[in-house]
What we know:
By secondary structure, the chain is an alpha/beta fold.
Amino acid sequence: MSLLENQQHLAPVWARYTDIMVERGEGACLYAADGRSYLDFTCGIGVTNTGHCHPRVVAAIREQAGLLLHGQANIVYHRPMLELVGALRELVPPTLDTFFFSNSGAEAVEAAVKLARQATGRTDVIVFGGGFHGRTAGAMALTSSKGKYRGGYAPLPSGVHIAPYAYCFQCAVARAAGKNTGAISAAAPATAECCGEPLRQVRHILQTETVPEDIAAILVEPVLGEGGYVVPPASFLQGLRQICDEHGILLIADEVQTGFGRTGSFFAVEQFGVTPDILIMAKGLASGLPLSGIASRRELMDRWHPGSHGGTYGGNAVACAAAVATIAAIAEDRLVENAARLGAVLKQELAALQGRNRAIGDVRGLGLMIGVELVRPDGGPDAALCKRVLAGCREHGLLLLNCGSYDNVVRFIPPLVVSDEQVRQAVRIFEQALAG
């Protein structure tokens, strides 16, 4: 059978963005079988932060593959996992000194919630509207970015309460106060102030739907991912930390999409002056190999009953070797700094375009995690325009994705190795596609 025939035997549950048959990738580009090249601003949905096939990562994978492919974590220690622990200890907040590894973001979310419940002896979790935490059963109950992720799967696990995220552009209270006319500053999120309504709603949940003594954790994305690339005011995350401290609730930061330099700091929480009790990581951790993890305090991890959680492939030796090389590449190539510098350029270019095109309602983001919200003349979400723009960009060699609950936000997530010229080229193509 031909490859084309074999395509027809893949499950259609994978919603497809393109029909491109890709042969190879290098840096910020993908190269198709028909000879076309594409500027890849999808980054494998925020995975290939070091670019496609970074030489250092490829070399580490090749070397480790000849030594040990799999050393199961319950049975043996292996060098790549222990080296990864050492590398991560230099990057996460110093209080988060103990690690557990799995394969995907959803698995890491499930692990974090299980840890929170066992460590606190409490049952419930507060999450936020527009949040995406995965599509396994437990993670699906925590996800509200799109109804299709949950539809047809009820009943979902209970004990989940959904509060509004600090989405300033769509916040009625902020609108009435005139505080949602622009995105939160990418340069100084710590100076941004929330109108207070989202935090009030969290406290309202603690008063009406449940009691603080039942809440094990508040789970939050420091920057909303699938829900629209929304940057909250720093006071929102700081307020969540305060609520957790008041009631003995654990704060879990889901940095699956925001971690490993994506937002212009190694982890996004650094820019908000907040230290979580549990930090979730995946995507950019291993440059495309399946690996995820959580970091927490030793005293919390010690309350996680041995054998109550695990996984055959978690902390795979080859994936861990790739992760160690990824972290080294991010440091040596100064990719965090590149994300901050070129993220500012990208946001500035897109903001200038916003001034010339009323279809752009908002431009927001941190580092190289930028969202452009497209709206109709009446201010409502314009998913149809977003779809046309993505198709137009694809025709001109630029790959982009959408996000947002209404599929009307274009997200720019290039590899952190992207150049100034590639950023400006992407904006030119985007402007051309937007013009129709």
